[in-house]
Amino acid sequence: MTNLLNTILVTILVMNLFALGTSRILAVTRVVAAQGVLLGFIPLLVHKSLVMPVLLMAAAAISIKAILIPSIIVRALRDAQIKHEVKPLIGFLPSIILGAIATAFALLFAGQLPLAGNHYDTLLVPTAIATVLVGFIQLVTRYKAISQVIGYLILENGIFIFSMLLVEAMPLIVEMGVMLDLFVGIFVTCIIINHINQAFSSMDTRELVSLKE
Amino acid sequence: MFSDLIIIAIILAAASGLPGLCLPRRTVWGQRIAAAMMSSSSILGLVGASLVLGVGQSRVLSFPWPAMGNSIIGIDGLSAFFLVPIFFMGGLGSIYGIGYWPQLRHPRTGRKLQLFWGLLTAGMMLLVISKHAIAFLLGWEVMALSAFFLVATEDHKAQCRQASWIYIIATHIGTLTLFALFVLWRWATGSYDLKPVAGDVIGIGVLNVLFFLSLIAFGLKAGVMPFHFWLPGAHASAPSHVSAMLSGIVLKMGIYGLVRFLSLLPDPPSMWGGLILLLGAISGLLGVVFAIGQHDLKRLLAYHSVENIGIILMGLGLAMLGRSAGQPEWIVLGMAGCLLHTWNHSIFKSLLFLSAGSGVHSVRTRHIDSLGGLAKTMPWTAAMFVIGAVAICGLPPLNGFVSELFVYLGLLGTMKSDGVMGSAVVIVVPVLAMIGALAVACFVKVFGAVFLGTPRTLAATCAHESPMTMRVPMIVLAASCAIIGLAPVLLIPILDNVIAGWMIEPNSSIMSIGSVAPLKMISFIWAALIIVVLLLAAVVKLRNRVVSRVGTWDCGYAYSTSRIQYTASSFAQIIVTMFRWVLRPRMHLPHIEGLFPKPAQMSSHVDDLILDRTITPASDKFAKWFGWFHRFQQGITQQYVLYILITVILMMSTMIPFREFIARLFAR
Known about the structure:
By secondary structure, chain A is an all-alpha fold.
């Protein structure tokens, strides 16, 4: 069981790096959707017994993170007619290197944490931290609003993984609330993206500075 | 009974904007419902307040509020006295708003204005009746924030946004000072209750700090001279009935706070009264001088508010000196002047703003030199403005005269006492006289330029009289001016009641205001005067002289144009030059060269003493010093996220034992 879990987590880490390294936004969206599917399996593996809340959480994660949100993003992409992240702040290769450094840092850091006994042999904590950091990097280095949405999504994936540690302690309702927030946030952002596109005829978030007084 | 009426009135006022919010934008009913609710609130409240003032009852209601202790609100004479103008203007202003800011013409801003109008009045009512510091602050903040949204009604205009920002900064400095004041009060007295304290509870040092904090906090709201900087811009940018409310009522909440708080502090040193008197004299004189230099009708009226706040403070200062010196006559005359001028100013300044707003509404400019000749097209508005102007100048037989008379009598009465204090106070009398004279000059300028003569622009030619909904509130206000001016005797019991409640020194003998001021004689003289004037008018009418009609200011020329007449600026030129040491008028003269120069124009303006000449240069300096910080704050989201990332990584790094790692690395 632990082996299978760790395999999934390592796949997620690789996907993180892939998301940082590609310029085609559609591909990044697909990777993040695939990540969502994998995330959906994690609660099933972490839990010893399959009870109703766990199944619900898995179903919700897959349907929201893997189907609903990616389809909203793809729709926004189509409406705004964009395919590539044109000019990131840092190039794609340096981003991958930064992501790798962040992953190494996360592994190093997680080794220092006083964790509960049964969490030592899984990669849950380092993956969670690495994913959050990668989400941050994506948020900081990309200028297109849609790439930022994806960064936000990756960030939330990291938080989701972290919450797996607490899956016994944390009530389902909290997890559902987080998921709903994410959904609403991305829904609204995608609408805003359309409006930014119409108002500035560009998707560059730097243009928003001109709204200042 | 009366307290129930007042509480119902507060709830009605607070809720008055809500039905409009639920109705669609393009309907008149939301505004009509709001005006109806505000009017019924003001009628109920006025009945309640007059019961308190007439019968002299007072009552404290306690509500359970466990975190803060009980005894939240209470209504006494002073509260009721300040409630009257709030109720009065709250109802009249909302009726005026139907004509001035119709929902159909302002679908975007109308509902917002109605909502915050109700909240503003409710906030002020709560503040006036609260007997507990936290409830007071609650009312204060509701008032301050609603006033901010009201000033920012036309938030699509940059000038309006700027004025509202300056206002909210100023009001929040005041609120923070109030926090300090109440925390210190709690520390000194042991409770948040606003009850008078005995003489030996608080040391003189703490008393002085309490006094200065209250002077700053309430002075900012009242617009006392060094703290008035938010006032002209806010008053000019707001819709006119909001300006009337701000100038007439909201400023008075600062006065209320000061009057109320000073009534709680025991044994005032004579320095306090002296300082208030001095601030009053400065505000009064500089307020009217700056008013003369203005070109914007509503800015000019706003500076007159500073002037009148100065007169109110002179009365208060005299009363405080009376408390220090144990002179009941000073207290009675000073307080009567302060309180009555508060009422009077709220009436005639509202009247002036409403009638100025009526002109602005019709011509759509506030610039005095673009108006002119409005008396012919808007006779009602002109008549109302002239009544307000006579009242604000303190000329008989209107209400401004009565309250200024109290202050004069009180100030002159100090001569009767021997000692340095009396002769020092008398110096203020010529200042007050000068304020009155300059105010007359200023209103001659305004009335002459705006209402007399011939129209200066096409828009002014096309002016038309305002609708009934705007005229009725003005007529009511003008009638109140006349009633108070002609029959001040009616106010004797009210003023006696309030002043008796204000004095906390137990041994001071209570005098009646009727015994120290010749109020009955005033009524007789005015009655006689009116009869004489009416007789003269009848005689003139009977003679039936032919009135020849000629163009204004034509000076014998055959074809007079509107450019021949005096402008407001040229009329004010002499006085502006006289006071150029403080006004510093700035002229922008054209550069003229050649024998046939091109058309050129010149302009002049007077910058505000505090805002434009002190605060703005100082903040520009600060902005220059901290210019390098802009590199870190450029409004780019990515940058801010990067800061979060760096912080997180730094905090995480503190947990990693790097030294151990390096040691292990080298050990291998």
